[in-house]
Amino acid sequence: MITAFGLLGAFWCLWYVAKSLVLARPSKQKESSPDGLLQSALRWLEDNNYDVLNAQKKAGYTAYVGDSLVGYKEEADFIARKNGHEYAVIVGLEDLPEDEICGRYFPLFTILDVQGIIFLNMRDESVRHVEFKLHRPRRYQFRHLVYRSLWFSGGIVFAFALLHRA
């Protein structure tokens, strides 16, 4: 038979479950949604005279070290151009130290072949420009000069061959 205590216990369990479900309901976050972040970042880029070329460019690599596999995947939210220089734009809500930004996004810089990275922190509304300068050895510069001169001389020979056809 159902006693008063059993009925009261069942009512209390139902009340507790209903209350926890209501409180577990997702509330509106104080932060903007990711689409809102990207739209405000796009607006900031356009206000500062950047031309947005691409959106959401992914970069990644896979390396095999012995028997282990090492991988890297990162995504730039935008590729923007200003004054003939292209930049990978990263939009985020976190404040990263400079050394972590450089270490984390240097592979993105090399894979996407951009001149630098713009890190937009939308929480603090701060902007960080990271520019990398690669110091290549002389043999690389010499090899690059030889390749360009070979292509140039091959173009000249081809042009003479077209002009002097009989």
Structure in words:
- Helix 3 links the parallel strand 3 (85-92) and strand 4 (116-121).
- 12% of the residues are buried.
- Strands 1-2-3-4-5 form a five-stranded mixed sheet, sandwiched between helices.
- The chain is 45% helix and 30% strand.
- It has four helices and five strands, in the order H-H-E-E-E-H-E-E-H.
- Keywords: Membrane, Transmembrane, Transmembrane helix.
Write the layout of secondary structure elements.
Blueprint: H1 4-23, H2 34-47, E1 51-65, E2 68-82, E3 85-92, H3 98-112, E4 116-121, E5 126-131, H4 138-163
Parallel strand pairs: 3-4
Antiparallel strand pairs: 1-2, 2-3, 4-5
Label this structure with key terms:
166 residues; alpha+beta
| Percentage of residues in helical conformation | 40-55%
In terms of DSSP E residues, the strand content is: 25-35%
Distance linking N and C termini: 114 Å
Sheet with most strands: strand arrangement? 1-2-3-4-5
Structural class by sheet pairing and helices: alpha+beta
Number of helices: 4
Secondary-structure element pattern, one letter each: HHEEEHEEH
DSSP, total strands:
5
Radius of gyration: 29 Å
Biggest sheet overview: 5 strands, mixed
| Low-pLDDT runs | 27-32
**Morphology:** elongated
Average pLDDT reading = 79
Short description:
With 166 residues, the protein is an alpha+beta fold.
